[in-house]
Every structure is written in C-alpha cells, then in structure tokens.
Design goal:
Layout lengths: L2 H15 L4 E2 L6 E2 L6 E2 L2 H7 L8 E4 L5 E8 L8 H15 L4 E10 L2 E11 L4 E11 L2 E10 L3 H13 L9
Antiparallel strand pairs: 1-2, 3-4, 4-5, 5-9, 6-7, 7-8, 8-9
Amino acid sequence: MKPMLAAMLVFCVISAASAEPVSVGDTGVTFEPPAGFKPVPKRIRDLKWPSNRAPRYVVGNEAATTTVAYDLKPHVIPQSGLREAQAQFTQLFGGVIPSLVWKKNEIVEHSGRKWVLMEMTSSAVDTDIYNIMLVTGYKNQMLLFNFNSTKEDFPKYEKLLRASLYSITIPDAND
C-alpha cells in the first residue's frame, strides 16, 4: 500500500472513531475529542489540577487517566509574541517540573494561526505523565489545549489524541 493511501486510511479510521465536536465555551473554537471521552467531574478536576489556574473544561476516558483540558485564560498573546510566550513557558515548566523531558518545543501552524506546541514527559507523585500542549492567542485571551495521559495509557491513546489535536478549528483566524 502506498504511504499516502495508508495515511489517508488511518485518518479516516481515526476520524470515524472520534466524538462529536466540542466547543470551547461560546467562542466557536471546536475540536473532536476521542470517542468515549466524557466531561470529567469537578471533584476529579480539583484533584488533578489543585490550583486556581485549573482548566474550566476537561473531557477524558472513564478513569480520567487520559484527558483533554481546554480553556481560555485572561492573558493576551499576540501572534507576534508567541516566541516570547514559548520562552516563558519553557522557563516556568523547567523551574517547577524537575523531571521534565522535552519531546518537542516549537512554533507550529494550525487552523490558520501559529501555536506554541510543547510535548513533554514528567513524573507526578504517583505516575509518569505524557503532555502535549498547544497555546495561542485568541480574541485577546490565551487559548490552550492540554492532551494529557499517563505514560502507561499514552500508547493506547496517542493516535486518538493527535487526531483530536488536528481537529481543532478556529472560526476566524484573522482576529
């Protein structure tokens, strides 16, 4: 089978397995979470993100060991300021996550805009974690997605999480 045909077949299978699009608040920004992912209850979110900076929206598998967190935060990040934001995130994460191992830390283009893409592993108190984060500015706020999985679960969910990441759409990329 030719590589392009194989890639298209995989994309179609993954797309067929995805859930209905989910909106980020009332922004019109949408993405398709992996099939079977449901909203994570507040009590679980509070345990997983015990700070006032926790995301407002999280969907995940039944055990919440693999999740997609997404939110808008009150931080202005213009497209021209993404390199600076990337440097700040890199410094912050490096300072507070001693076991951090970068897989990717770059600026990418998706859905008509540039994003900071940070892919990393780290150790939590009870397990090792794999994170894929996307951050961009949207209407004078910071739009962020965190595709988060235990390292144990990650191989099972990786293709579905990446398909979910690529499904992000922004209605007006010129804001």
